[in-house]
Amino acid sequence: MATTQQSSTKHEILEYLLKHSRATAFELAEILNISPQAIRRHLKDLEAEKLILYSSIQEGMGRPQHVYHLSREGRDRLQRGDSYGEFAVSLLDTLAETVGRDQVSTILRKQWERKAQEYRDRLGKGSLKERVENLVELRKAEGFMAECHPVESNESESDRFILMEHNCAISNVAESFPSICGHELEMFAAVLCDCTVERTHWIINGEHRCGYLVQGRKPCAELD
Q1: What is the distance between the alpha carbons of residues 211 and 80, in angstroms, rounded to a whole number?
Q2: Phi first, then psi: what are they for 220, rounded to 5°?
Q3: For the segment 112-125, what is each residue's pLDDT rounded down to a tens digit?
Q4: What pLDDT is recorded for position 34?
Q5: Which InterPro entries does the entry mention (predicted)?
């Protein structure tokens, strides 16, 4: 039981660092409601597993503080289906060698068009808020650490939300075929076709999450 609890706490630390990029031991202890001593033990274990790194910062006249962040291995630990991702990259590389990268891009576009139709069928006809929340749940089921938040605005004529994904369940594919991220943006725009969808953050650009601004505009027609 204790081992399971320790594993759960370590996973919570990794998830917090993934979402917030960095934190001190004191901040983690407060957020997770456990003692600083216990947090330091977990951090030491995670550092030994090479899942986290730290840098020292000096604030005032006191001792330097350690600020922790995920290592590449730590980020990978939170990705799902890495072995499938490696297989997908190998398969796409083989296709690129056989039919050319332009044809692979066309294949990926067709895949996202199918996915967009599947999402739209499952999201239903509710309000934009309900559909964005349902989309978040679908993405979570596929291995994405997704969430959404309303955007405060003085403009009353449209709903606005930020859709965030703190990891990339297809990161291996995206690194080798970055065009897939463009197709993903097109997919969200097709799924929420009464909205404008703009990318605000991008993991491939070195940011710690992908983000999309979703803003309602007009009713949409059925996909072809």
Answers
A1: 19
A2: -115, 155
A3: 899 999 999 999 88
A4: 92
A5: ArsR-like_HTH, SUF_FeS_clus_asmb_SufR_cyano, WH-like_DNA-bd_sf, WH_DNA-bd_sf
Q: Kindly list the domain boundaries of the chain, sorted by start residue.
A: 2-77, 82-216
Distances (CA, A) of 69 to 168, 180, 212: 17, 27, 23
* Secondary structure letter of residue 1 according to DSSP: -
The tokens describing 15, both together, are 């998830």
Sign of CA pseudo-dihedral 133, 135, 137, 139:
negative
Residue type, 6: Q
- DSSP code, position 63: P
Q: How far apart are CA 189 and CA 208, in angstroms?
A: 22
CATH superfamily of 82-216: Trafficking protein particle complex subunit 3 (3.30.1380.20)
Q: Cα separations (Å) of 113 from 8, 116, 158, 191? A: 37, 5, 26, 9
Name the pTM for this structure.
0.69
Q: Which amino acid is at 188?
A: F
CATH number of 2-77: 1.10.10.10
